[in-house]
Structure formats: structure tokens, C-alpha cells
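Listing 4. Sequential folding, example run.
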Amino acid sequence: MKRSLIDILDLSVAELDELIASACDIIDNPAKYAHVCAGKKLATLFFEPSTRTRLSFEAAMYELGGNVLGFAGAQSSSAAKGESVADTAKTVSCYADIIAMRHPKEGAALVAANNASIPVINAGDGGHCHPTQTLADLLTIYREKGGFDNLTIGLCGDLKFGRTVHSLIGAMSRYKGIRFVLISPAELRVPDYVKEDVLDKKGIPYEEVTDLETAIPELDILYMTRVQRERFFNEEDYLRLKDSYILDLKKLTHAKNDLCVMHPLPRVNEISVAVDNDPRACYFKQVLNGKYMRMALILKLLKEAGTI
């Protein structure tokens, strides 16, 4: 039976645990997985620029013994001629066994999934969500903290358009003792629908603040995000807000010794490069963890589809 992943909440907590266990086994026993997808093809349909997500999907499929085809920009696909997402999904279903798709429009991955005859993985749809980044985030938290309960999580920067933030809030809201500190300018706060449908609905404590330095001492996890130029309607607003938060070593002197600093990347200047050598910096570990979780997800969806 074909199954797709559009939103992180498509996966139950038990399935998240299963994917984490699978990723950990891949880390420990890479040779065991080197040929499990031999003869299978992943199509990467990236209508929007990407480095980590696209290359990690490709690396994941190659390390499983499979092959990759696809495109890395809308201009190099028939979308430039006006082809619909639905028709692209139907067409690519004739060539591949599974699709990973990034698109600038919210809901595009769902349209693709509804029209493809093979599994579709949402690799980011506009400002909506980015479930496989959240899988990378979860494996990072698991490996750094040993579990997900009783954590105070600070989310900092662009919380309005940050699809990684929306997905992570949804995922972490299912664990016990979670508390969020939402750090952003007033213009870039978490959207009301996320607060109402997730945080308020589940009674999860959170506070909205504008100052990073005041918030940092209480945090177990600090999830930094960039202010995304591509989501703004005018340059003036972007320039006014782009440097709202910059994490440097001075700010980290007030943080816990076991703070886990995360970032979905790419960064611009919101984390000083001097922080990279601090043992609390986990954002490049996230990159590697993303590859392992995407390997685990590809395996899961192809097995459920009866392809492997």
C-alpha cells in the first residue's frame, strides 16, 4: 500500500521511535544496508533551491544501493512550460519508485501525493512544514539528550515563515514535560494557527519573548533560524529584521553547559562562526543525522509500498 509523508504528524510516536531505531542501526551497521534498495530509483523534484535536503536525499538513496534522478530547479523542469504539479507527479511515477519534492507553494506536496502512484516525501512546501528536517532534528535531540521528555526548547528568529519551526513544535508537542520559549520580533511570531491548534489545544506551556539573552539560561535546546529573505514581500522589512538575533560566544556564557544549539541551515550570520567549535554546537551533527533519518524513511515507505 502506497503511503506518503506530507506532515510530521502523519507519523505516530511509535513510528518516530521506529525510524530513530532504524537510523541508529544504519549508523552502527552501514554494510547491512548498502544494497537494500538496489534497482530502485528516487526522484528528487526540487522546484526551489536546496543544498542539504536535496543532497542528503541523494546520498541516502545511494548509500542504500539505489539510484537517483530528478531536477534542482523549476526552470529545468516542465513547470517552466506551465505543467501542473499533479501532472508532474503522475509522469514521474512512471520512472521512479519514490519521490522527494520541495516546492515554494504550501500544499504542493499533498497535491503531488494525491496524484502520484508512488510514495511522496515532502521535502519542504513553502512556509508550511518540512517533516524530514524535523526527523533530523529529532534524531539529533535523541542522540544529544537521550530522549524527548522534560525539555525546555527555545525557538529563535523567524518563527512565522520557518516551516522547520512549525514541524518541530508539532513533533515535540507529543512528548511529556515539554515547554517552549518562542523568541522573535513581534512581526515574526509563531502563527496563531500553530499556537491555537497545537500548543493551546494540548495545554503545552509556552511564552513569547523578544530577548534571546534573557531566555538563554533556562534552555535545554536552542533552535536558531535565519530570517528568510525569500519569504518577505518587500526588501525593507527583511533588512530591518534580518539581524534581530545573532548567537555568539558571549551569549553562550549564560547558557547551560549541556545546551544543544541547533539550526536547520543555511545560516547567514545568526550564529557566529566562533560558536562552531563550542561543544554545544550541534547543527552540523544535524546535517549528518538528516541523511540517516532519510535513509530510514525511504526504507520504511518502500517496504510499506511492497517495493522492497
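-- end of first protein; second protein begins --
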Amino acid sequence: MFNIAAAQSGGPTSAINSSLAGIFTEALKQPEIGAVYGSINGIEGVLKDEFVDLSKILTSDYDIDLLMKTPSTVLGSCRFKLKDPREDDSDFRKAAENLQKHDIKALFYIGGNDSMDTVMKLDKWFRENGVDIKVIGVPKTIDNDVAETDHTPGFGSAAKYVAASLQEIIRDSRVYSIPSVTIVEIMGREAGWLAASSCVLRANGEPAPHMIYLPEAEFSEEKFIADIREAQKRYKAVIVAVSEGINIGEGFSSELTDAFGHKYLSGVGKYLEKIVGDNIGCKVRSIELNVMQRCSSHIASLTDITEAKEIGEAAVRAAVSGESGVMMIFRRISNNPYRVEIVTASVDEVANKEKLFPEEWINADGNNVTVDALNYFLPLIQGEPDIEYRNGIPVHFRLNQ
């Protein structure tokens, strides 16, 4: 019998705790697995020997169910980049020491493409140094930009929130008779998946957002203004969805970067608001959805929450069968009926890579997406979890009260 540990890394989502629940519940079914530990703040907790016994926290089916519907990372997170072990392997030796101290022989790391860098480095160092610890990656991110997998847990719920919020913005914008332009800035560093997902409103006959601008398409201010003028010929209230990562030149990303070298983005919507105001002069406002996109579990996708748990369960089975240095992935079989299978991919093919939105799903004008995108997105936002409310507010699971 051996013990396992799970850790969460990177940005929060509405589904990452569901993957943790899946790891925990599947481990209970495996006779060779003893204790299930949680590492506080990702790999930092492993290095600091900060583990909690999840069986002492998740003491009932109610706890597990509530955890699945709770957003963010119940164990905390980090953006910690391990050094190149060829230059300094002290972190790797400390990780091995602390994991072995608790007889942990499998580590499950829930995170995005940068987090898979940690999985890749740990697995390689453990193998090369004869350390019997398996390392398995479990994907998550609202950006949907993790390589190899069809989609990532957390994305479907974020897409559902974005679409619902846009629909409410649309209703608000049509109250008055005067012409207006509303620009909605949506997360997505270099990949425009989340902004593109706003197209799902078409399934209910909503023509807005009238334009969608993504990092994967060339952007020019002149064409943007021309697109707005053209849309105004048909719509009094023009709605624009724009990814925060579109290329509008220098000055719209902070000089500050995270541990993986990614610049913090800001100001795209506000800049475009000024451009419209200066060139068209109509009523214009920009709205930045910001962090609400990540943790809006009150409107989560049941498909997302369910799949997040299932991919966590599959990760445990993969480790028990002897796999290591892999990330669990979804492989789509069909859109309608929607079917996926969960398999593994080498983490070497995932770490530090990005899956961009397909260029063939962007229209010829570079300002919208095709029906193929709609067919891809729509299954991911289906279903609504049964949310418990107390005093009118959704109830969340909290590790530290």
C-alpha cells in the first residue's frame, strides 16, 4: 500500500476542485492506495512539506459534492517555476525527500500548460535518479489553451458565464433609442478561445456579439472602425467581444511578468472605447469581465463539473496502472451526440506549449467565428449543477474557515 498527493496550480476555475474530488474518490476505491494528501499552494507545499490529509477534511459525501461545486482552489495555488535541474536540483531533492517522508508514490498536479512544466521536470528527475514516484498531470484552465486535449476543465463554465453576461449586457444596451457601442473585454492571453465562445448566443437566435476579435487574427484600428460603422447600419446597439490578447501595439501589457515570463495584460477594451469615441462619437462604453470569468460557479456548466471529476478519477487509474510523465486529455469523438474519451498524452508534448484557436474557424474578415466554432463550444456549456443556497447566497466549501 502507498499514499498519493494532489496539488493545484495556476489560475482558479469553477471546476478545478471537482478534479480534486475525482482524485480523492477514485483513490478510495483503489485497495493499494492508503492516505490521500493535499499539498498546500501547489508545488510550494511539496517543497515546504505542507500537506493535509484529505480524509480528515472530506468526511462525507456532502463535503465531496460541495467541493465539486466550489470555485477556485481549495488547497491554494502558486505560479512557481522549478529551476533547470541541470543547474540546481535542490528543489527536486527536497520534493523527493518530502514525498518519500509521507510514503507518497504518486503526485497529481492539476494545472495548465505552465504547470505541466512542473510535471515534466519532476517526472524526468525522478526517473533519472531512481525515485519511485509517479507524476501525473490533470489539465485545467479557463483559457482552453492546453495542448493535446480537446478542451480543458474550467473552460466550459467560464464560457457559459461569458455568454450569459454578454446576453445581459445586450439586453441592457438596447434600452435606449440612441446609437451605442459596447466593447466587452474577455480573458485570453495569446489564445482567443474564451472570447470566441461568446458565439454560443447564436444558438438561441441572438445576433450579438456582432463582432468577435481574437489574437489569432490580424487586427487594425482602421478596419475595426470600419466594422463598427458597417454594423451600425443594421444595429442601433452594437456589441463587440474582444480578447484581451489582441495585438494593438505596445503599451497594453504590464512590464510585470509571472514566473513563466507571461506579461499581465490590461487596457484593451478601454483603449478601443477611446478609438470609437474619437472616430465615431456615439455613446460607447467598455466592460472588462476580469476575474469573474474564472470563479462564477453559480452559473457553472454541469458538463464541465462532471468531466473535471471524471478526468481526476482517470488520472488515479492511470497512476495505478503504472503511467507517469503524462497528462490526462479529452479526445472528442463527436459533437452531436456529444461524446469524449479520456486518454493520456506525454507531458513533453504539453508543457510550455499553447493551443491556439483554429484559424479556419475565423471568418474571412477576421472579425467573427464560423459555425464550426459554435458546434465545438455548445456541448461544453450544457447543464446546470444543483447549487445549494444559504441566506440567498451559494454555499462554498472552505478549507480554512
